[in-house]
Design brief:
The chain is 44% helix and 17% strand. The protein has an eight-stranded mixed β-sheet with strand order 3-4-2-5-1-6-7-8, sandwiched between helices. It starts with a strand and ends with a helix. It is an alpha/beta fold. The chain has a single domain (3-267), classed as 3-Layer(aba) Sandwich (Rossmann fold), CATH 3.40.50. α1 (16-29) crosses α11 (237-267). It is built from eleven helices and eight strands. The protein has helices spanning 16-29, 44-48, 60-64, 91-97, 107-112, 132-140, 154-171, 191-204, 217-221, 229-232, 237-267, and strands spanning 3-7, 34-38, 75-76, 82-85, 121-125, 143-149, 177-186, 208-214.
Length: 268
């Protein structure tokens, strides 16, 4: 079964799309079939992985609103074993059109059932708002990866998000877990970055990934060339950070699979 991870934070500019795109590319490069789903009408993940604007291209909108099967929407990317469900500006309309739909929070989960056996990892890049698209992603996901910028008030933002996740777990998706909290735009030269990192680790302990994503010019440049960082500059600090993060995510998945196998065995 695919491990479905929503990359989410209600705050914008924290590195959500950068993380979704680069983690997906690193997982695929580690030979794990991976799907990247762009759930944001800004379509930044679609562009960052190398797709130019194309009004005729089918997108997530067609699956959620017009019930088109994902087989007709999935695109192959430039990275081996990495497929993409693209977005475009029409997706902004989906958030409105879903309001009166039946089972509106479960649309994405229902559409994705057919993909379970095909991929090892499915990453959902969420919009920077708690709208119906983000809710659909959090209901479809098994876990949430939360990127947090190392800046003042970071802790406050993550506390709000975790409150939201608790409500979703109580009402819509009881199996939702925290995949991990990822420190982004980390600058070891500043006291603030170090302080925020220490505060988050003190507060959340092992829920914070060991990997940290540094402030990195090459990482910032890569999306404008439509390339993940491992294709743009594999020797950069940014590439190093995401390769390490992919290893942690793979290890987490293997541990969970082992725990599941053991509990099934003891249950039998």
């Amino acid at each position: 079964m695919a491990r479905i991870i929503a990359v989410a934070n209600q705050k914008g500019g924290v590195g959500k799309t950068t993380t979704a795109v680069n983690l997906a590319a690193c997982l695929a490069s580690a030979e794990h079939p991976t799907l990247l789903v762009d759930c944001d009408s800004q379509a930044n993940a679609t562009a960052a992985i190398g797709f130019t604007k194309d009004p005729s291209r089918r997108t997530l909108y067609h699956a959620l609103i017009l019930n088109e099967p994902f087989d007709r929407i999935i695109q192959k990317s430039q990275v081996d074993r990495l497929d993409v469900i693209p977005a475009d500006k029409n997706l902004a309309g989906a958030a409105v059109e879903l309001v009166n739909a039946e089972e509106r929070e479960y649309k994405l989960r229902a559409a994705m059932k057919s993909l379970d056996e095909r991929y090892k990892f499915i990453l959902l890049d969420c919009p920077p708002a708690l709208d119906l698209l983000t809710l659909n992603a959090l209901v479809a996901a098994g876990s949430v990866l939360v990127p947090i910028q190392c800046e003042y008030l970071a802790l406050e933002g993550v506390s709000e998000l975790l409150d939201t996740l608790m409500r979703i777990r109580r009402t819509l998706n009881p199996r939702l877990e925290i995949e991990g909290i990822l420190l982004t735009m980390y600058d070891e030269r500043t006291t603030l970055s170090r302080q925020v990192a220490n505060d988050l680790r003190t507060f959340f302990g092992t829920q914070v990934f060991k990997s940290m994503i540094p402030r990195n010019v090459r990482l910032a440049e890569a999306p404008s060339f439509g390339k993940p960082i491992i294709f743009y500059d594999i020797h950069s600090k940014g590439a190093e950070g995401y390769i390490q993060l992919a290893r942690e995510v793979i290890d987490n998945a293997e541990k969970r699979a082992g725990t599941g196998a053991r509990s099934a065995h003891s249950g039998g």
